[in-house]
Specification:
The protein is α+β, with helices and mostly antiparallel strands and about 500 residues long. Helix content is about 40%, strand content about 20%.
């Protein structure tokens, strides 16, 4: 059954660029480390009369780098513009941005297609390519702190370089929007231009959403959800807004074009103001900044800085390490994780698939439980590789290796020494294991009878009892063989 409506989603992604100074002045852009509010400020970023801006060369380079990574063309001639609107967090009463001639435009990013739209409750295929309309430079606003009867403003963030990445409305499900946003974040982190830390507000999403009859090509009235600072907020807010608009149309109503906020506690979108159009901002060329003239050689030099990006790295991991695509995507989701994996592989005698299973399993579990990033882990690739090889060589069992790994991550050390000190070495001596197997079978006659009567799943239980009795030292493969042999003899 086909859905009645389909969503039409476009995203605007705002990413603060990692530079030493602000976009148009020499003040520090590291507002998070400022000792007090309103200390990283000057006449330019506080909008005092007569202050003259000067464009940040590093920010321009990073903006072009992002555009090239997103398959955009770089405009050799691009200009700054004044975007006029007044809010307390905008000290000049306008924002210096780019409008008619952005630094980059007409790009694209491939996403995973075939997502199922939760709003439509039916499966259909998303386009696999999202077009990127533009990538442009602007300045961030100050921060407002709202109290009961007044608001405080901190200008430390005002003027920090901000990159806006604007997609075309090419996404047809919340899942597609999430995949696109996730991939853009990964690219920004690979390039080292943005930390991707949404909790600190350095990366924010704005979703433009409308719905239309399924199969239609029309573009209906859209709403914009502002300042979504997590993937969870993006998906929840988008899903809610899609359902809200569908209900309006089904009841015979009309969707109003407006700017919305997202109330994460109540799980609803809330109206903030009527949606502005370009003419409401009264754009005109910024008179205090000359146009940017970028040469072919300059663009080529910036392009030469592009690293191996996530999609290319994923493809290489599949081909070089013979990993499944989904396994490769996990490893390449973060550059630090991909680099760590390759470093462990280069130092290990075990297969890349074995290394992947350890990193995707116990290692990632530790990161998730501790809330740490790969860069925070002090476990060296050499030590991790040595431990994995000890499992491959049957020097230590997989379960005991998990114990060793936990200690290596927390306290460091040498895996061989830890195994020796804790007495965790795996035992493959058949006579030793045979003795334990015989005792386990003798101590559990009821389970033996059930096994002999046909409940063969108990074999793994017997193996587990031997492992428990030997504190994980017994080689599970040898244990299984000896248990099978002993049970077969009892069946006779």
């Amino acid at each position: 059954m086909k859905p009645t409506y389909e969503p039409v989603i476009g995203l605007e992604i705002h990413a603060e660029l990692i530079t030493n100074s602000k976009m148009f002045c020499g003040c520090s852009a590291d507002y998070a480390s400022a000792p007090e509010p309103n200390t990283n400020i000057c006449p330019v970023c506080t909008g005092l009369p007569g202050a003259m801006p000067v464009a940040n060369k590093k920010a321009i380079e990073l903006a072009a780098l992002v555009g090239l990574a997103l398959n955009c063309s770089v405009n050799k001639h691009n200009t700054f513009a004044r975007k006029n609107y007044y809010y307390p967090d905008l000290p000049k009463g306008y924002q210096i941005s780019q409008y008619e001639l952005p630094i980059c435009e007409k790009g694209w990013l491939d996403i995973d297609s075939g997502s199922s739209s939760g709003a439509a409750s039916a499966t259909y295929r998303d386009p696999s390519r999202v077009r990127i309309r533009r990538v442009h430079i602007e300045e961030d606003t100050a921060k407002l702190f709202h109290e009961k009867n007044y608001a405080l403003v901190d200008f430390n963030r005002a003027g920090v370089p901000l990159l806006e990445i604007v997609s075309e409305p090419d996404m047809r499900s919340v899942e597609a929007a999430l995949d696109y946003a996730t991939k853009v974040r990964a690219i920004l982190r690979y390039l080292g231009v943005n930390s991707g830390n949404m909790e600190k507000g350095v990366l924010r999403f704005e979703a433009n959403i409308s719905v239309r009859p399924f199969g239609s090509d029309e573009f209906r009235t859209r709403t914009e959800i502002k300042n979504l600072n997590s993937f969870r907020a993006l998906t929840r807010a988008s899903a809610y807004e899609i359902e809200r608009q569908i209900k309006i149309y089904e009841s015979g109503g009309t969707v109003v074009q407006e700017t919305l906020g997202w109330d994460d506690v109540r799980g609803v979108t809330t109206s903030q103001r009527s949606k502005e159009e370009a003419h409401d901002y009264r754009y005109f060329p910024e008179p205090d900044l000359p146009p940017l003239q970028l040469s072919d050689s300059w663009i080529a030099e910036i392009k030469s800085r592009l690293p191996e990006l996530p999609e290319a790295k994923t493809k290489r991991f599949v081909e070089q390490y013979e990993l499944k695509p989904q396994d490769a995507r996990l490893l390449t989701s973060e550059k630090a994780l991909a680099d760590y994996f390759e470093s462990v592989v280069s130092k290990s005698k075990s297969s890349p698939k074995t290394v992947h299973s350890w990193i995707a399993g116990e290692f990632m579990r530790y990161l998730n439980d501790s809330g740490k990033d790969v860069d925070d882990v002090t476990l060296s690739p050499e030590s991790f590789a040595k431990l994995i090889d000890m499992v491959t060589d049957k020097t230590v069992s997989g379960n005991n290796a998990k114990v060793v790994l936990a200690e290596l991550i927390e306290s460091g050390g040498d895996p061989q020494e830890i195994v020796k000190e804790k007495g965790l070495a795996q035992v493959s001596d058949e006579s030793f294991i045979q003795e334990v197997v015989t005792k386990i079978l003798n101590d559990n006659p009821a389970e033996v009878e059930k096994y002999l009567a046909g409940k063969e799943t108990l074999l793994q239980w017997f193996v587990g009892q031997v492992a428990r009795a030997t504190k994980g030292k017994a080689d599970p493969n040898v244990t299984k063989e000896l248990a099978l042999k002993a049970l077969a003899e009892r069946k006779k």
